[in-house]
Specification:
The chain has about 270 residues and is of the alpha+beta class. The protein folds into 2 domains: about 5-180, OB fold (Dihydrolipoamide Acetyltransferase, E2P), CATH 2.40.50; about 205-270, Arc Repressor Mutant, subunit A (Orthogonal Bundle). It has 10 helices and 9 strands. It has helices at about 5-10, 45-50, 55-60, 100-110, 145-165, 170-180, 205-220, 220-225, 230-240, 245-255, and strands spanning about 40, 65-75, 80-85, 90-100, 115-125, 130-140, 230, 260, 265-270. It has a 5-stranded mixed beta barrel with strand order 2-3-4-6-5. Helix 5 (about 145-165) packs antiparallel against helix 6 and helix 7 (about 205-220) crosses helix 10. The protein is elongated, with a radius of gyration of 22 Å. The two termini are about 15 Å apart. Belongs to the replication factor A protein 2 family. It holds the Pfam family RPA_C. It comes from Dioscorea cayennensis subsp. rotundata (White Guinea yam). It is found in: Nucleus. This is Replication protein A 32 kDa subunit B-like.
């Protein structure tokens, strides 16, 4: 997914134009500054970066625009700005958005408590506390973006650490912890495919194979290419097991969030790349 691209290539400029990025040191009435490096981070990564003795990592985070994703809480509207708390499951951070232009007001009018949003902004510190001055706050429409955001956080952390001479252990220790503690339980984590069947503490090796086989059929490129997924009869045909057994396995994977039904209760598609 990210092969062959460094953090600079992926995140420099962050996909927004220079006119969109505000000067973090300016007042709301001043013109917006140039684009800076945009780094996807979790709140915990921000806190640990500023609390750690790794000045190089701290400098990268402090001098960069950041990309966050989380739940909106405690929204407060004022004449000059709108502020709220962003909770991404790893921690909370204060977000403020200046109401400099009409589109700022229009954008923030759509944001309500309880919504998942994507925030682009600049980190600022005040009395030892970090906050983000946002220049973009957008609702999350496709919830695959949540899983994607945490993958981007992992990649950015690995790339920054590698650039700063981190060891493999340092590179992998934090990101894996982040992914294994994904704060949104209803969002599929492709690295956490549980193979524990309901009602059984641990499945046997043969049961594992069967459950993996059915999931593998639904993850084949030809299956993913089908807009409506595969019909249960097609899965039975490919796997060669009784329909009742296939339905048992299908129901397990649906309950686990690995697959989902599409146009009816007989068509299913993998949630990994669907």
């Amino acid at each position: 997914m990210f092969a062959g691209a460094g953090a600079g290539a992926l995140f420099d400029g962050g996909g927004f134009m220079a006119s969109q990025a505000p000067d973090p040191t300016s007042s709301p009435s001043k013109s917006r500054g140039g684009a800076q490096r945009l780094i996807p981070l979790t709140v915990k990564q921000i806190c640990e970066a500023f609390d750690s003795s790794d000045d190089k990592y701290n400098l990268v985070v402090e001098t960069s625009n950041v990309k966050l994703l989380g739940l909106v809480m405690n929204k407060v509207e004022r004449v000059t700005d709108v502020s709220f708390t962003l909770d991404d499951g790893t921690g909370c951070i204060e977000i403020s958005r200046w109401m400099s232009e009409i589109w700022d007001s229009n954008e923030m009018a759509l944001i309500q408590n309880g919504m998942y949003v994507k925030v682009n902004g600049h980190l600022k510190g005040f009395q030892g506390k970090q906050c983000v001055v946002a220049f973009s706050v957008r609702p999350v429409i496709n919830f695959n973006d949540i899983a994607l955001h945490f993958l981007e956080c992992i990649h950015a952390h690995m790339d920054i650490t590698r650039e700063k001479g981190g060891t493999p252990a340092q590179i992998h220790e934090y990101p894996m912890m982040t992914m294994m503690t994904t704060p949104f339980p209803n969002v599929l984590n492709p690295y956490q495919v549980s193979l524990q069947h309901p009602g059984h503490s641990v499945m046997s090796g043969s049961s594992n194979d069967i459950y993996n086989l059915v999931l593998g059929v639904l993850q084949e490129p030809s299956s993913l290419a089908c807009e409506h997924g595969l019909h249960i009869d097609e899965i039975v045909k490919r796997v060669g097991l009784p329909t009742t057994k296939i339905m048992e396995i299908i129901n397990y994977h649906v309950d686990s969030g690995h697959i989902y039904s599409t146009i009816d209760e007989n068509h299913f598609k993998s949630a990994f790349n669907g």
